[in-house]
Amino acid sequence: MLDLQKQKAIIEISKKEDFGINEQKLIYIFEKVESFLDKHREYRPRGFQLFRFFVDYILTRNRVNYDSTLILTGDKGTGKSSAGLMFAKFYCWMLGIKFNTKKHMVYSNMQIVDAIDNLPKFSPILCDEAIDFASAQNWNKAENKKLKIKLGKIRTKHFFFIMCWPWKINKIDKIYFESYINYWVDLYARGKGAVFVKDKNPVTDPWKLDYFKKLGSFNEFTSDSLIEKNYRKHPNFWNLVNIPKPSEKFFAEYMKIRESNVYNKGDLSSTLNEDDIIKSFIVKAFEDIFMKSGSAKTKRLVKHFQELYHYEIKDKQIKECFDDSKQIVEKAIENRKYEKLKEEI
């Protein structure tokens, strides 16, 4: 019976191989790891060891000619974004690269398409607001239909997609849930998730959603052991994992990117009209021409408003105005690019 240390050794060996030459050996390695997941459902290492092994497994799986999609669900405050960050960061560490919040995180259809086209093979793509493109209520939008076609054609790049999903799982688009998603991590508490693996039976519900009605109820005061006992009744359940918490510095980097993408949220961007966009272009042009040339500074603008208009506008408010205008302009340009791209996909 293979223990976790032996499985780790197998993965370490696999990372040193030339994957184009030893494909058969890699398939054998993958089958060994797959067998471990099937036979050791009751194996529960302490700490984050099982989390690390799970990420190792996903990378090994991708390296033997697969791609992987993981969805994170849970109540508000359970840390879906934090968990997504740590899955992506540790996966990058296994690849020997550094997770880049600007490159590996996406918030819109166009950003997803750009990541697919420009990121190298085996890269992670963290979809922090998957609700905007993968919800069942948006399935008939032309851009979302095109994106699904695009995702179906990029298997050869072996990406690791991570989707953060804030709603109930039955609100996700059926094509994503049944065809693209391989792993489902339901966060029942902050930093604690139950891992479910897709059933390969081609004619039944791959996630056995009806079985959840038979598991019994539990809440935030229920012990981990009882939660696990309930989850183990489900045929797709694999194990419980503890997910590391991102550092304050790392989370601050994430928040900076998240806030810079506020206008990529469908509910907010839909409230913008043509006048808002035109005004934003004018403000952005003013910033490009005067602010960056050094002929004006925000503090000088504060003084100008006070002396000429007798109105106090703070330096922070001016910077926020420039930042908002920049985001709206970028979103408008992105939408224009995407309209052209839809004809090519």
Task: Please give a structural write-up.
The chain is elongated, with a radius of gyration of 23 Å. A 7-stranded mixed beta sheet has the order 2-3-4-1-5-6-7, sandwiched between helices. The termini are far apart. It is an alpha/beta fold. The chain is 52% helix and 11% strand. It has helices at residues 4-16, 23-39, 49-63, 80-95, 101-104, 109-118, 131-134, 142-151, 174-180, 224-231, 248-259, 266-269, 274-291, 298-309, 315-342; strands spanning 68-74, 105-106, 124-127, 160-164, 183-189, 192-197, 237-242. Mean pLDDT is 78; it is low at 16-22 and 40-45. α1 (4-16) packs parallel to α3 (49-63). It has 15 helices and 7 strands. The protein has 2 domains: 4-250, 3-Layer(aba) Sandwich (Rossmann fold), CATH 3.40.50; 272-342, no CATH class. The longest helix is centred in the C-terminal third of the chain and has 28 residues, at 315-342.
